[in-house]
Structures are given as structure tokens and as C-alpha cells.
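re the bet — no i am not wrong, look at it urself. input seq straight from the record:
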Amino acid sequence: MGSPWFIWSFVPGLHWMAWMQAGSMARYRWYYGIGTVYALPCCLWLVSRRLPLSLVLLSWLLSLLHTQVQKQEINRRIASAVVAASNHEAIRQALLQAALKHRGRLSVTQGVMETGKSFPEVERVLNDMVASGYVFTRNNPETGVLEYVFKELL
């Protein structure tokens, strides 16, 4: 067993949570849809009590079989998401160090030069930092270049 998401697959009635947790851990939306499909018989049974309990058990057995078949693929996706998240964090830390060297202001090109990462990668991380509220953008008054301003480093 071992995987935290996989344990849910052994709990009848909550077996669909395995797919929801796998989707969350792997950052893969398709698993949420699968979890929803497996949750439907449980929800319908709880709401109406007209659905035979055997359909809930059938849903559980199918989900259990499905998780067994897909376990390696799901774990691979989860591991890949963890690596991507740690890579994202490493780039973020490198950009913070670069911004500190550039008096709290950083262009995408400067970020690429400092981190050695690609333009799209650096821009994605900087835009995520803008979305978090720690960084804002402006055009440099002298050059007109878009720069990311780290307000706490000014």
C-alpha cells in the first residue's frame, strides 16, 4: 500500500476520495472527474435511499480495481508534480536572490540570466509571484522595460 491516496480506495463509500486525493497530489484534474463518477452512486444512495446498496458496493469494487490498475501511473504523476513544485520553488528562491542584487527590481531577462532557466519558466514564476501579491509589475520609467518589483526588497 504505502501511498496516502491509495488507502482511501479500501474504504467502501469513501473510495472515491482516493481519486480526489490523487488529483490533488498529482495536480491532475482528470482524477477529480473519475472521483466524481465513483462518488455518484454513494451520493445518490445517501440522498434518495432508493438506489440499491449493491450499486455502491459495485462502485467500490470497480474503483478498487481501477486504482490497482492505475496505481503506478498515479504515483508517477504525483512524483512528477512534487518535482515540478520543488523546481518552481527553487526558481522562486533564485529570483528572490536576483531581485535582492538588483535593488528589488527584476526584468524577465535578468531573471533568465540569473537562474539559467528559460524565458517562459521565469515569466511563469514571476507572474505567480505577482498573483500572490508579493510582487507587482511596472514599466521602468527610463527604459520602458516591464519589471517586477519586489516591494519588500526596496
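see?? The domain at 102-153 is CATH 1.10.10.10 (Arc Repressor Mutant, subunit A). told u. also The mean pLDDT is 92. so pay up
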